[in-house]
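Worked Example 4.2. Read the sequence first, then its structure tokens.
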Amino acid sequence: MIDLRSRDTDRVFTEIPAGTLLTTVSVRHSGSPEDLGDYAELKQAIRDRKRPQEQYRAIRQYVRDSIDEITADEQAEKAVPARPATPTERAAIERDLTAVDKMISTPPTASAREPGRFYRVGDRWFGDTALIPSNAQHMGYGDFQARVPGGSLYFSRRDQKQLPGQSGRLHELSLREGTDLPGVLERLATAGLAQSGGTFDDWPRVPGEPETSAPAPLAQVPPPDDVDASDDEPGPSPKPPAPDLLAPPPVPAVAGELAFTVDAKELQGALNLIRRVSVPGDAKLSLVQIECRGHVFFRVGSPDQYFELRFTTTRCVSPGDATVESKQLAASTKHLTSGALQVQKKPREAILQVGVVGRQVSVPTVAYVPVRLDDDLTGAAQIPLEAFMDLLDRSMFAVSTDANRPQLHMLAFHAQGERLTAIATNGHMLALASIDTPDAAALDGQRIAYPALLRLQKLLQEYEKTVRPGRRRKDAASPPLRIQTATGGTKRLALATDLFTFIASRAPAEPIAYQNVIPKAGDLTTVCVVNRAELFDAVKPLASAKELARVQVATPLEIKSDTFSFNLRDVFVDGPAIEIGINAAYMRDVLEGLRSGGPLVALAFTTPTSPILVITWPDSALPKTRRDARGPVLAALESNNITIVMPYRLQN
């Protein structure tokens, strides 16, 4: 037991009376239990037992988070009266005041610290510790909030991720006030308070490092005795497509002409949407192709994946084409927020003029290869936008982010009658999410690669904000998402709304055979229903410390590792007790993916070495009988709304 007190000689936790017991942590290790005095003795004990220092850091962070939570609860109830300061404390306060007076009287000097870095990974923004300004307010649990030009920037602590140039811990960035997070970060960079650390479609990995470290990947689970094991082995990686010799040549920057008018508000809305999916520095995803032929279209992407916006307030005066960099166009026109704007490119000039008479800005045009449009897209199928986004929310967390594993680096769709199922796996967990829709067959066999999937999700989220600001209102109808497909030489899928059309080539690799790892209903032996938040809080510190968990499924439910031990008593267990090994990181990811469900989750087991079934519990209360516990689990199995986590084999 670690007894962490705020002592006279080392007041680690300020504003708490010295000697106050803050919390205790149970440290499990081989040998007899012993009492450890403080952090120093804990660190030495871990070092003596040759345990990794990650365990010490995980314990320290867990204790600090617990202290933040306890302190917040206690302050909400009543304030603890402070005792008179001791002579030692009064002397320390005097020293601090003297140091403050010296700092105030000394002229400020330029800081030599390098500005913090911000990163874009997929559709999310992150920043390192050095990015947190000195005036930031600590919100508890390692989170911070700071006022910045353009809004209130919130830093949400995440697990340690090593990104290029990262300093300290990584935080996910979001705006509590304001809507233009990329614009806020650009202003900070312009002022010299931040710098870009890079843009990534997926989490970058150290060369040679495997994506995961679990010993039993999903793709290698042995099939039943009567099934050939070779059926489950992933096939060879597909060869990259050969370059198209008939691809159109690049168009020079001076070529083309056009002229049209557009409402300033619609232009700014289009640029905000483009910013979500553009990638600065990418030869294809950093450009905006403008087409003016009857209607005006903005296109971003490549023949493999692109989206186009069709404007409704435009009037095409002179047909033609032009291409500019999206970042340059947004920066040059950001102050044009009202009125009808004139957009013009004259022949043999590499300049696009945007504005009104007497107030125009110039945006340089660039050379480009035109996006090849699909003339063979057919179909009139529709699916409710809300239903399709629900599929993405319940499955995308399980898609592999490793581009070197194409069979897993995608989301696949399968239709059976009117039931449409989205299938995602990274080799160690599997997610099946299903809905019923009359046009399910239109998406049967479609496969969307992970990078395109990220951009599609961002576009749909922005579109939903526009057309359904009251998503949670019962009277807010879900608009349709139109589906078209191309069955020619290059198979493509088009998803269209009244704001944009998204087109992506079908992922070339076939998905792995996953059916053999789904438990049979008759093989389930033990069903456990537990509070999702409590289970998440138990596995999160283990995942941060990169430890494997031993789970004793009984009442109470016990989760332990070499460092941590948790007992969850608010559980319902039906069936014999079972002990099973779980990779805490995978269970954490699954529970995060199920956060859209209710407060409870159900875990179903067959044997200690068989896949673990996880489902969202449809009720807000624990079951009372065996029938109540097994009914929803069997229904989820039958409807393909399940998540599977692979266990690891326990060592006796």
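Now turn to a second chain, presented in exactly the same format:
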Amino acid sequence: MLSKRTKWAKYAALAACLSLIVLLGAACGKATPTPTATARPAATSTATAVPAATSTTAPTAQTGTVEVRVTDAPPEGVSKVLITASKIEAQRSGNAGEAGWSTIVETPPVFDLVAVTGLEAVLGSSALPEGSYTQVRLSITKIVVTVQGQDKVATVPSDKLRVVGNFQVAANLTTVLTLDFDADKSVVLAGDKVQFLPVVKLLTRAPSDKPEPLKKLPTATPVPAATSTATAVPAATSTATAVPAATSTATAVPTATSTATAVPTATSTATAVPAATPTATAVPAATPTATTVPAPTPTPTTAPLAGRAPINLGTAGDFAILAKTGVSTTGTTSIVGDIGVSPAAATYITGFGLIMDSSNTFSTSSLVTGKVYAADYTPPTPAKMTAAVSDMETAYTDAAGRTLPDTTELGAGDISGMTLAPGLHKWGTGVLITSGVTLNCQGNANAVFIFQIAQNLTVANGAIVTLSGGCQAKNIFWQVAGETTLGTTAAFKGIILSQTLVSMNTGATLDGRALAQTAVTLDANAVTKPN
């Protein structure tokens, strides 16, 4: 009886266990991997979908605010400069042409450069995706200048005013951009006509949760007299009322200036290296040491120079400007050297007022000291242009294919204020020159510079490329895989081999050649082909 009861007890326990499984879905003994448990991974897959939804919304949240302001230096003989613009935009780093532009202010208020003399006024603000930006574009609708009580509509070289300058947008912070005009230099009076040749630089502040308030500069004391002028500025008037309380940004402008003066300090540090050379000569009075000293100086450059032959431009070297899709200019441009386009026709050379030669093989222009060629002119011009473009592409490939660089990723792409030795310098990013850069050939007139740039080359407004130590522009090659932009009044030297656009902003100069595999756009520039 006891053994039977024991068996019945076991059966009862099993029955109880099975009933628990049915009622509760729980595991019993080896029943752990039940179908219910395997169904949970499906729930897990639903959970993994959540991060995907999060990543979709994250970029929307990662925006910062960009505020655009305007200021000016006092003009002479002009009582009002009213600027009407339709849009203010910023272009994100790594983009070219019309790509990567974001609108900051859709319809900015009309602003008077005289009314903002010595102070700042807000034009508007907007949220932009966080990241690096390289330039700001102002679309100008109309400029009215008041001279001796008469309002005159000014002519402008371009309705798109682009101001180059790097700035960062950080999530949940505000970046302040100030368009610092110089109306005294921008307004050109020519008889009864008025030209506005914009001289403007971009002042940027680092992203902050508490951006500097508007401030008057010390020179703003005479502005009250001009306040009545401000009443003529529709939306800017309300801003002007805020400006009196706004005083600190003015002091920020000198701060930005002092930062610029800090750059020369960096330069002096770089030039301090040569100071080590005289020290080396001073170490031994002995003559043999003096012969040893020159050896270290050229060592970094002489060794590579043996393998740094200049880029062979072929027949592309006959041109100051050569492009495949077009060449355009606005304003008073001056080109010393020939211009050519191919496979584009002559209709894609605009703004030069071309006059066809009787031979029909080339044109002339009052803006060009040289000849203008196009693929659709009378033979042998088409064959000449085909060969020139082919040589340009070959030269680009040669420059991009040079190996064993002397430096890589120098300055993380920002070479502002540096003094560079000849050789091959390579970047896997874009290159930025804000204040300027010095190229020192160390007494070797045949020294060669080759710059390999994987993205854009951006030269800021007023930046200068200085040649020293016997350097020649014809031996300096800038191979740019992206777009090349020379800012307002920038002074650039060398041969630009660009895979896309070469864009020269108002007043920029080029001692060299612009060889582009798309287009070249000019705006009152001077381009001189080196000998």
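Notes for the reader: Residues 1-9, 14-60, 217-307 have pLDDT under 50 and may be disordered. The longest helix spans residues 248-282.
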